[in-house]
Amino acid sequence: MCGIYLTNIPYEKDLIKEKLESISFRGPDYTGIKKINNLSLGHLRLSILDLDARSHQPMVYENLHIVFNGEIYNYKDIKKELLDKGYSFKTESDTEVLLIGYNEWGEDVLQRLNGMFAFCIYDVANNEVFSARDRLGVKPFYYFWKNGEFEICSQIRPLLKNKTVDKESISMFLDCKFIPSPYTVIEDVYKLPPGNFMKIDLNSKEFTIKEYWNLNDVKIKNISYEEAKKELHDLLIDAVKIRLQSDVPIGSFLSGGIDSALVSSIAAKVSKTQINTFSIGFEDPKFDESKIAEQFAKIIDSNHKTTICSSDDILKLIPKLTEVYDEPFADSSALPSLLLNQVTREHVTVALSGDGGDESFMGYTHFHSLVKNKNIINIPYPIRKFLGKPFFLKLIGQNSHRVRNALKTKTKNDFIENIFSRKGFLLKEQKQDYMKYYQGYKKWSDNFLQKAADLNIKLWLENDSNVKVDRASMAYSVEVRSPFLDYRVIEFARSLPMSYRYESGRQKKLLRDILKEYIPEEVFTQPKKGFSVPIGNWMRNELREEFLSALNDDFLNSVPNLNISKFKKILNEHMNNVHDHTENIWKLYVLSKWYKEFGFR
């Protein structure tokens, strides 16, 4: 796991070094800067495979120069194929395999890669830059482009100097709590979408972006439940095995949930040595899952480390948010994620995680909510619109926001989209239609739940979950590997009947039945607490003055398109414990901190 940088802007080496130093946590082991013709390449290395200096980057093979962030998990298979073709290698790294693979197959090398990656290859002979991002957007890729000048980087901080805030992206953030790709918070800076590659012709100063992978039309397999369970189990075992390759200490995150328990259980079984597992617990029992995780660890015989945290431990990490989440990002579970990685780094450099299981196996509560409220959507819209009026909801004593959404939305697709976006709730007017980039979910499947799962993967997984995990882990130079984000698992899950994954309210059915082979069912069916912290209570109590100070009139007036009177109303309701508006208040608080950190107004 590393940081990459590339530009054709004629910056001095000292300035490029300064840019890289601003995100040095991504690769503390070595900083490489190289100028070739009119291009400058930079790399921050976190050494995982082949720790020798021979694998430092930028790396060169004949006329090709690469900067690469990520891991190619099947690099040994690709290397064998290239050896059979007569190539020789100077290192034991996956970087060299990727570089020589590109030399052999060009852009078609992407179809062979199983991994998480963002990379740039400069082809001196053709005066061309080829860049790509992994299928699911696990690794970040930002680029600035204007009038033929460009910069590419793993994070946006090195690209911010002398730039202008994109006002419409602020509205997107207030809708979503993140800024969806391809947009960013800065004008002329973009994210390369997952499953895409970019070619830059340095002669003509033109670039093209092309998709090489995406979700596609669902074709349900004719397969029995037992066959599906065995095939999925075998696939997960392989996905874990290839993610255990490392020349540095490796461990696994272990919470009280099914996904991390299954990943850790498989790792414990296939590893040649006892695995290390890590969890954090909280003093408040409403949020603490550490005792369940400790039960899991005892059963799978892992070397387990639990760190019990106080609210003060979490609160101390709030300044860290704007340091490493250098684009506005308001998922409050980033705080415990930071803490987990902080304690994990004391013991290992690489950690497995259960991220991605909820998307493919219907684990989130909103999937269950969709099923519960699906029949409401079938009521003709004019009737639903009437039933959604406040006086009627009060009359029937209904305060569920999912029910309110089901009554107010015109279509089932609107109901699905409202899970991930509050669409104008905090805004004076709805502007940019960012959802236009995510409309594929409507056509890939006719199944209501699969549609929601596909939007979950394309919109939320990339822009929220993957961002949260990447920045929280990189903040402490930890590499996180997620077997459920193996594209083979994603594709296989989508091909299975929905009843194998979700049946009569039983979520993650297949995963539960596989996990029973490792951990007794009565142990892993204990109530899950969720990876959250009581931000809403902190706002009303120990952080009350901090929030009221940050959300002052001067700041609120500087936020483009914000409905200030509405926000002040919900802030007052929350502080007086009338309603819980934690999520929307947290968005504005995070934005205020981002403004202050980067000097924007």
From TrEMBL:
Q: What is its EC number?
A: 6.3.5.4
Chain ranges of the Glutamine amidotransferase type-2 domain? 2-203
**UniProt-recorded Gene Ontology molecular function terms:** asparagine synthase (glutamine-hydrolyzing) activity
What species was this sequence derived from?
Answer: Flavivirga spongiicola
The protein's UniProt keywords, in alphabetical order, are: ATP-binding, Glutamine amidotransferase, Ligase, Nucleotide-binding
Under NCBIfam families, the record lists: asn_synth_AEB
Q: Which InterPro entries match?
A: Asn_synth_AEB, Asn_synthase, ASN_synthetase/amidase, AsnB_N, GATase_2_dom, Ntn_hydrolases_N, Rossmann-like_a/b/a_fold
- Record bears the keyword Ligase: yes
Q: Which reaction does it catalyse?
A: L-aspartate + L-glutamine + ATP + H2O = L-asparagine + L-glutamate + AMP + diphosphate + H(+)
Pfam families in alphabetical order: Asn_synthase (PF00733), GATase_7 (PF13537)
Q: What is this protein called?
A: asparagine synthase (glutamine-hydrolyzing)
Q: Copy the pathway line from the protein's UniProt record.
A: Amino-acid biosynthesis; L-asparagine biosynthesis; L-asparagine from L-aspartate (L-Gln route): step 1/1
Ligase as UniProt keyword: yes
The family note in this entry says:
Belongs to the asparagine synthetase family.
